[in-house]
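Sync notes, pocket subgroup
Present: LS, DG
LS reminded everyone that the earlier model was apo-only. Rerun requested with zinc ion included. Inputs:
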Amino acid sequence: MITQIKGLHHITSLASNAQENNDFFTQILGLRRIKKTVNFDRPEVYHLYYGDAVGTPGTVMTYFPFPGLHRGRSGTGAVGTTVFAVPVGALTYWHERLEGMGFEELTQTIRFGETRLGFRGPDGDGFALVEQKDDERSPWTGSDVDGQQAIRGFHSATLRLEDIGPTGALLQFMGFEDQGSENHQKRYRLPGGNGANIIDLQALPDVVPAEEGAGSVHHIAFAVENRHDQQNVRKALVDAGYDVTEVKDRDYFYAVYFQTPGGILFEIATNEPGFDRDETVDHLGKTLMLPRQHTHLRAKLERELPLLRD
Ligand code: ZN
């Protein structure tokens, strides 16, 4: 069994409009934009990162905003809900805040004993806020959301699957423990993780597969401390029969990717070197940072990328 995984690292999704996406995460959810860079393979498209003050793994939501991208369709083989943790008692504040900002279809439910507020992002993205007890993580306090209420990072992700069996077995191989079932959902929790330790699997045998587009999660990444641990995790996955990519240098972490049996792309990402590799903590996310191979495109990209106000 794999013992080096520390929880979620980041979740990467697709959007249709960079400014709308930026404003949603910074002005509505109160996260910090920690990096403004571009897609490695499509440098004409932004890669925007949001998280806590320094982009601690387990807090990092990232987006590829492809201008005008058609909306995805929800279904199986995809992440259904990206869930952020807030302190116990904070949901009253968030319900009023989101309602006051014009959000409709807010849902408040209790799942696995935790109160949860569900809502939709600008491209129909499935989000929820959950009151998580004993969360030691410090929030970003540079927004208008008070530190008492602010998002701490990820709580979990809910994966929608035709058959949850093989993905459940994979999560247990990755070190997650079976926490039981409730309403056709099965919960897995990683002991001793970074605070973003839960994956819920939702069994939907009669639902059609999802179609990727704006509002879809592209992949979810799990954290390991360093490249040494990543090599050990990679080897264990390969030995178990998974087709895992070679290590890719993503500037702020090293990444390997593999397809999971339920159709969702998983990544294993290192906590090193981190988002302050090329910017001081004070200035994270302010300047357009370019991957080394694209630095020669700076003038063209600055001219052609959509203007992005803070
Ligand atoms: Zn990733």
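DG: The chain is about 15% helix and 35% strand.
LS: The two ends are 44 Å apart (CA to CA).
Action: DG to write up.
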